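A favour, since you know our C-alpha cells better than I do. What I am after is a single protein written out in full by you. Could you add the entry underneath, on a fresh line?


***
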Amino acid sequence: MTPFKIRMRTASLLRRIFSIRFLKFGTVGVSGIVVNQGVLYLVQEHVFNVSQVVGAVNWWQLNIALSAAIFFATLNNFFWNRLWTWKDRVEHQRRPWVVQFGQYTLACGVSIALQFLFTNLLAPHVYYMIANFIAIGVTSVLNFLLNDIWTFGRLKFKAQKVHGKNG
C-alpha cells in the first residue's frame, strides 16, 4: 500500500470518527451510560446488597449486574441509534428491527467483551462504577466504527459469483 493510500484511508477514518454522526452516537452513548450505570447500581446495591468498599465486590455478582446493565444499555442505544443517529440510512430501516438488533449486538460484542475485561481488571483498584465508566469510554470508538460500517453502514454482504479459470 502506498503512503498516499495510507493517508487517504487515515483521513477517511478520522472524518468518520469526528463527524456529526459520531456526536449523535456519543449523545446516545451518554444516555446508554445513564442506563448502564443505573442498572448496574440498582442490581449491585439493591438486588445483591453489596457494600461500596473497594475490593468487596463479589465476582459473579458483579458480572450478573454487568450483564443486566449492558443488555439494557445496548437495547436503549440500539433504538436511539436506529431512530436518530443513522436515520438517514433508509436501506437499513427496511430490515426487521429484531434482525438488525442481532446484528447490532454482534457488532457490539467486541466492545462488550472489552468492557467486561477492563471493568474486572480495574474493579479491584477503583470503585466499580468508575471502573465501568472508564471501560465504556475506551470501547466507545470501536463500537461506533463497527456499527457505522456494518450495522447501519453501506457495507453489504452479497454472495458473489466466482468464475474459475483454467490455466
